[in-house]
Amino acid sequence: MKANLNILKRDGTLVPLDIQKIHKVVNFACEGLAGVSSSLIQMNAGIQFAEGMTSREIQDLLVRSANDLITLEQPNYQYAAARLLLYGVYKDVYGGFEKINLKEMIKKNIDRGVYDSAILDSYTDDELAKLDSYIHHKRDENFTYAGLRQVVDKYLVQDRSSGELFETPQHMYMMIAATLFANYPKEDRLHYVRRYYDSTSLFKINIPTPVMAGVRTPVRQFASCVLVDSDDTLDSIFASDMSIGRYTAQRAGIGINAGRIRGVNSKIRGGEVAHTGVVPFLKKFEATVRCCTQNGVRGGSATTHFPFWHQEIEDILVLKNNKGTEDNRVRKLDYSIQLNKTMYERLLTSGNISLFSPHDVPGLYEAYFGDAEKFKELYESYERKTSIKKKVMPAMELFSALIKERAETGRIYIMNVDHANTHSSFKDTVYMSNLCQEITLPTKPLQHIDDEEGEIALCILSAINVGLIKDLGDLEDLCDLAIRALEEIIDYQRYPIKAAEISTKARRSLGVGYIGLAHYLAKNRAKYDDPKAWKLVHELTEAFQYYLLKASNELAKERGACEYFNRTKYSDGILPIDTYKKDVDTIVPHKLKYDWTTLRKDIKEHGLRHSTLSAQMPSESSSVVSNATNGIEPPRGYLSVKKSKKGPLKQIVPQYQSLKQYYTLLWDMPSNEGYINVVAVMQKFFDQAISGNWSYNPTHFEGNEVPMSVMLRDLLTTYKMGWKTSYYQNTYDYKSDDDIVFVKEEKQPLEREEFTGTDQEYEEYCDACAI
Questions:
Q1: Which residues contact 285 (CB under 8 A, 6 or more apart)?
Q2: pLDDT at 739
Q3: Nearest to 305 by CA among 427, 167, 457
Q4: pLDDT tens digits, 377-404
Q5: Residue 421 bears catalytic tag
Q6: Average confidence (pLDDT) over 675-704
Q7: Using CA atoms, how far apart are residues 421 and 689, in angstroms rounded to an integer?
Q8: Which among 30, 436, 562, 769 is annotated as catalytic?
Q9: Where in the chain is the domain with CATH 3.20.70.20?
Q10: Which one from 109, 206, 434, 465 is the annotated catalytic residue?
Q11: Quick one: CA dihedral 389, 395, 401, 403, positive or negative?
Q12: I need a surface site. Which of 11, 159, 713, 714 has the fewest CB within 10 A?
């Protein structure tokens, strides 16, 4: 380490570099950690020390030095690096290591304008002192470097222009809990605050991005998912566009339904004007989404939905690819293509598909989602009418185009609209999904921005880290806490659009899912393609949905059922275990372990506080915070290395040393069969949808190419097994650069995933998802 250097302090003065202070800080970071060397961290960092560096730059070099040493053989450097980063956090917030009490921190942050002042009106000084005593600051040392880096960069309240931090992670968790349970009865609320704080700060409950970044601040919009439905009128399209803009600016991911908009050159006012078609309006939606950055947390993103028989479907399918020009491409939106049984039948019988403009075929659009048999009858009758403009093409040709674009872009999604409705908790029709394809809620187009008869659907998310549960009984308390916290958000948050407020407060739709499923299966010695895994997931998900429904039923007993409860199938005693696709029974026999009879009776008698409870979202970003595996996904390597502005982020799968032989690695899977079955079993119990992915390793196929027949088979299998939606298509690309690498073994070459791009694109790739 270089001696006789001067460093620049934060007050602008030059002082000699204090080597002993560096020794002390690094030794603290390494204390109690096996297999780490304080001197090696200092030596590697010291090589880069230079005259006039700031103390913050010295700190960053020490952090990077420790991070560079993280390997599968030396995993504890991820905790040493986190502690070194934590030292900088404490220096920002406290000026050192001496903690300030909760009330003092709250007052400071209210004065700064970054905390909601209502919190001081909600709690007495004695209560705040009690909450302060509940905080376990030592839990900050449970973070890995990748997890703490995410918290510091994305979630802690701070001055984003200067980078100055105003709170610590434990303060963040406590403030979220205190804010959410502030309106609970005084005799109960500290109990709930403490339990929720413990569950989140111990990484058992995963908090969605908008909540983690926003609850406790003056911003009060925490819905991860917003679904905006547009009608085929200019007023409705412009109202939808304004709604999209308002919610994008407030951290939400957007689902857009543009499927009602008529096709290009359709007649307007008897032929006085020819319609421009959907592309110009999609460009307008794209511009609105892209013009809003979301408080430094994530960029705006949206997925647009269209039925497979839409007149412009051939053009819609290619809007995302890299061919063509800016005039005929809308690349910054994602697309969800909606299928139903009739479309699949045309493929299987080598038939044709007829394309229509929705306005030319009255009743067809509604029937497509609401009544499969009526749709088939109407569709065939319109096909026979020679007076109706249509284009007829072979089903195989159109499906092949769909699969080709899905494979090439990875971002053309599938929505099976019949499953989304028959296996729904709603009597109302579901017309669309959200950005990440896990939300399936009723919507109704706004005719103008103040239209209170329209319906914008919002869903608030959370997840349970199933990798940390000891037995299925742990789910009861965790599900109850998760539901109670999300319930509070519905009334606490503000709504920029009245139609969203009315429907959200009436339906009270929630979506709770998993993180850490790969960890859970590894702990139980089960691979994804092992029938043992499918049985484990069946048992896990039965317990999960049972306890979610039980929690909502208990809240209904306390506060009453949600206003629109009678518009759900639950009100008739119909549960997901009654409406699932029975082909799933070929994966795991239908044997239930919980008392559904009594629960069904209680739901019919007392209702539910929420119209939906479960949804499986992607969690690429927030699962890193908890050092959990991503959602329900198999890890791509035991060690992942992802580029970020602050240097590479390395994450090692939980319990690597003891469980490495039991983890399923994504690119080792010979097919999607095991994963498809896992999702199908989950979907049996979930009342919303699942962000399920298809993944292919071309090296498993002749000529290093994935055959079209394999992808079509997976499309048909997911439909047969009741998948409501299919999200990303991932393809292993060993030729890509090092933006994201995955390590299978310490001595093996790095494995690379397909993502390449700018820092901004990386943020959207990882963080435009729900939590």
A1: 240, 241, 244, 256, 258, 302, 304, 333
A2: 45
A3: 457
A4: 999 999 999 999 999 999 999 999 999 9
A5: no
A6: 97
A7: 11
A8: 436
A9: 226-421
A10: 434
A11: positive
A12: 11
Catalytic residue among 405, 438, 455, 751: 438
- CB-based contact 225:616 (threshold 8 Å): no
Q: Look at the block and give the residue holding tokens 């030292």.
A: 87
| Identity of the amino acid at 486 | L
Residue 578, number of CB atoms within 10 A of its CB: 12
DSSP H helices, 562-640, are 576-579, 596-606, 622-625
Q: pLDDT tens digits, residue range 423-453?
A: 999 999 999 999 999 999 999 999 999 999 9
Over residues 292-339, the pLDDT tens digits come to 765 555 568 999 999 999 999 999 999 998 887 777 789 899 999 999
Per the annotation, the verdict on 76 as an active-site residue is no
Say how far apart CA 540 and CA 381 lie, in whole Å: 46
Task: Specify the residue for token string 């580029």.
Answer: 643
pLDDT of 747 reads 40
For the stretch 516-549, pLDDT in tens is 999 999 999 999 999 999 999 999 999 999 999 9
Terminal-residue alpha carbon distance, the chain: 42
Token duo for residue 53? 């560096």
- Residue 525 and residue 522: Cα distance in Å, rounded? 5
Output the pLDDT for position 39: 92
Look up 366 and say whether it is catalytic.
no
Q: Sign (positive/negative) of CA torsion 202, 204, 208, 210? A: negative
3-state helix, strand, coil in the chain (%, to 5): 50, 15, 40
